[in-house]
Every structure is written in structure tokens, then in C-alpha cells.
Input
Amino acid sequence: MSDKYDVIVIGAGPGGYVAAIRAAQLGMKVACVEKYTGKDGKQALGGTCLNVGCIPSKALLDSSWKFHEAQEGFDIHGIETKGLSIDVKKMIERKDKIVKQFTGGVTALFKANGVTSIEGHGKLLAGKKVEVTDADGKTTVYQAENVILASGSRPIEIPPAPLTDDIIVDSTGALEFTSVPKKLGVIGAGIIGMELGSVWRRLGAEVVVFEALDKFMVAADDQIAKEALKTFTKQGLQIRLGARVTGTEIKRKQVTVSFTDAEGEQQLTFDKLIVAVGRRAYTENLLAADTGVDMDERGVIFVDDYCTTSVPGVYAVGDVVRGTMLAHKASEEGVMVAERIAGHKTAMNYDLVPAVVYTHPEIAWVGKNEQQLKAEGVEVNVGVFPFAANGRAVAANETGGMVKVIADAKTDRVLGVHVIGPSAAELVQQGAIGMEFGTSAEDLGMMVFSHPTGSEALHEAALAVNGHAIHVANRKKR
Ligand code: FAD
Ligand code: AMP
Output
């Protein structure tokens, strides 16, 4: 038996590394076990988010947007561009450099906070012991007072589209293309599918997205989802709803996708195919048989609202537990658990976890949408303000989309903020701050917003809830 720790965290993604740092800040002796190695073969902290998720995908979204703007958006400003080209290798190298900067940043934060980083595969044994197996197969067992399981998730693979080295890939492979595919298929029109499809579409790929459901973006507000579908279709993304992929065949470096939709069985051929059908909790070889930690049949670890598992002193956070698979949800759970171990009464507000789709325009929301509230029988007032009437958006030639604020008809309390348009993620965060403090639409309407800003669209949408918008005709007069 080796060293004893107050807290051992398994997994150094945003759930795990944030929990480790916060626990160390609170005076505990902390170790974090991570097995992931980066492109240089060395341990890389930061999990899916920093290595193959949020950060690298945003790096490519930003690069590809700049290319797209230079190609199609500059002309209106009187800026001429000739002979534009994209060096995909350089774009990927830039992405890799950003990843390295951030994963190295977590290593530095561990050092600064006194967190011990242990390399290898961690497995929980009974009695809050953690067995770590290193790359050479050597095992060491550590004793902990508390264990935080933060092993994250993995992309789901589906039998009709088994991954290959370079033609049928998951989201990780889609961040590594060495050239722009002429024809790209994407299975799944979820957030990851739409973001990665957008990257390669902007760089010139012909993109078809297959979505088994008949409805686009089921989690979004219907009005916003409708606008999004219209906008993406205009951008040239061919989104086939009600299209279930049933098989694939690879021939001469191309993949033929078989799918069924309302018109029956069909086939389309692509140079690359991205499988983006969701993620599953990653609990392979994480728990010895006698730990007593309960999971469901899909490997999702059961926890309560405070991320406590069925075993006292063992917690689980992030993608490996229930709820949305988002980095900010994982990291806030990490903070909550570390603080509760230290005896604080920290709780997390699961009702206000914002969601963002980093396409262009961005789509973001917090709280409930109109169809959810209707289904619950809640009477609401809705205020909508289009970016076409927002000065800053028009100046920037970013006039698509809208801000939608939904408030309780009886109390005026804001229950949801939904945005499609420029800086949607930042606007929704402003709504979330207000909602955390129980803001009413009237409160938001009474605040002073800088002019000219995109934020004024949030101000006007809040005013529109009660028929007081100034820069758009009100649906409801008061
Ligand atoms: P992870 O980040 O998956 O980290 C778990 C870590 O545990 C991994 O490093 C793994 O190697 C390690 N591990 C697992 N088992 C063991 C073991 N037994 N021993 C040792 N180590 C182990 N979310 C957002 O909020 N915003 C976004 O913009 C966004 N974009 C995304 C884009 C893509 C392409 C993808 C794939 C995901 C994206 N996500 C985004 C989701 C986000 O990355 C995850 O929700 C988040 O990383 C979950 O954090 P986590 O700590 O629970 O797990
Ligand atoms: P998300 O889980 O949000 O990333 O979205 C994944 C999407 O993939 C869901 O909307 C699923 O309906 C869709 N999906 C799953 N399997 C298939 C399939 N075989 N063909 C087409 N779409 C699929």
C-alpha cells in the first residue's frame, strides 16, 4: 500500500481536474489519476474537453469561420479577396498548439495547487482504495478518505457504421482530417454533428447530415430550432430528417451510406463519414466487482443531487453521471463535491445549466423552452426581438436570428432565455445570471444596457414580454 490521500480523483477532465484543484484549495491532500496520452505520447490532462472536445472543436470552428467570412462575407464591406486558399495542415497544427497550451495549463495548475498527478488507469477497489496500473502494467494501490469518479464519456459506435482508420470516423477523427473532403456525410444532427459538419462545410465540403428523428434539435425551443434549420439549409448543409442510417460499405477509398427515410431505402456516397450519434458513460474497468457503487445497464453511475454514489465517501461527477454531457456542468459538479467533502453545504442549480451550439449563428439557451412550459401547463408571456432590428448586429452584417425571453404570466419571473444569433452564448449567460437571482422580465427591462450592443436585443426581448419593446412593434400592447 502506497500513500494515503484525503481525496483521489479518477479522471482529469473538467469534472475531475476542477474537483482536484478545489479540494486542494480547501486544504486537502489530493491526487488525480489520468491515463490519457496526447499526440506526443505523454500524459495529457484536461479530458475530452481540452484534448478532443470543446477546445479543439472551437479552434477549428473559428478558423473555418474566418475562411468562410473572407470568402463570402467581406465583399459587402468593400473588401476584395482574391486567390484565397486554406492550408488544412496549418489549421490543424494551430488547433494542436492550443490543445497543448491548455492541457499544459492544467499540469501547471496542479503543481501550483499541490495536486499530485498520477499517470495510469485508475480502478476503485472496495474500502476506498484506488489501484493504478501504469503503462508498463505495474500496479500501485493508494488509500483514500474520499474518491471522486470522473471518468467521462466515449463516442457511441453504431453497428451500421463501424469506424475505420480514416474514412468512417468519430468526433475525434473529424478533428484530424488532413484535407477538406469533397463529400462528407455526418450521422446525427446533435450539437457535435452540427458543429463538425459546419467546420468542413465552411471549408468547401458538400455535407449531408442524416438524422433519424423527424424533428430538428429536439432540445431547443421550437421557434429557435425552426430558424436554425432554415439558416443551416441556406448555408448548404443538407439536413435529412427522418433518415436512419442502416449500413455502410467502403469501396475505393469512399463510403456508401445506406439509409431509410420517407422515400424508402436510399444510398449516398462520401469521401468521409462522421459518426456523431451521441456519447456514453465511460466506466470500463473502473470499478472492482465488490465496490458497492451502483450503475445502470448503460454504465451511468447512480448519484443523488449532490453527486453522492451508493457508497459513502465515493462521489461521481460529469459525463459519467445523469444529466447533460457538458463541460461546465461537469466542472460545477466537481466544485460542489470538493466543497461538500470539506463540510460546506454547496448545491448546484441544475435548472440553470446553459446549452450552446457553436455554429454560425450560435444557438444557446437556458431554462425552459416554450413547448416544455406549455406541456407543464404554465401560462407564459413571450418577448421576441430580431437581430435584424439591432444596430450592432446590422453594422456587423449579422442580422439573422432573434432573442426570445419567456416569463411566467402570473409572476413575470423569467423562465427561459433562448437565442439564435451573434454571441448567443454570451447573451444567454446574461439571462442565466439574472435568472439565478430570480429576475423578472420587468427587472431586465429596467436595466441600462450599453448602446450599440447585441445585448440590447436581450433588453428589448425582455421589454417585449410585457409589450414595452421600443425598437420593434409589440405583439402585445400594454
Ligand atoms: P472527460 O472530459 O471525458 O474526462 C474524463 C477523463 O478521465 C479522460 O481524460 C479519461 O482519459 C480519464 N479516464 C477515464 N477512465 C479512467 C481511468 N479508469 N483511469 C484514469 N483515467 C481515466 N461541452 C461543452 O460544455 N461545451 C462544448 O463546446 C463542448 N464541445 C464538445 C465537442 C466535442 C467534439 C466533444 C466530443 C465534446 C464536447 N463537449 C462540450 C462535451 C465535454 O467535452 C464533456 O461534457 C466534458 O469533457 C465532460 O467532462 P468529464 O470530466 O466528465 O469527462
Ligand atoms: P446527440 O446525442 O445530441 O449528439 O445527437 C445524436 C443524434 O444522432 C440523435 O439526434 C439521434 O437521433 C441521431 N442518430 C442516432 N442513430 C442514428 C442513425 N442510425 N441514423 C441517423 N441518426 C441517428
Residues 4-155+280-350 form a domain with the FAD/NAD(P)-binding domain fold (CATH 3.50.50.60). The radius of gyration is 24 Å. The longest strand covers residues 139-149.
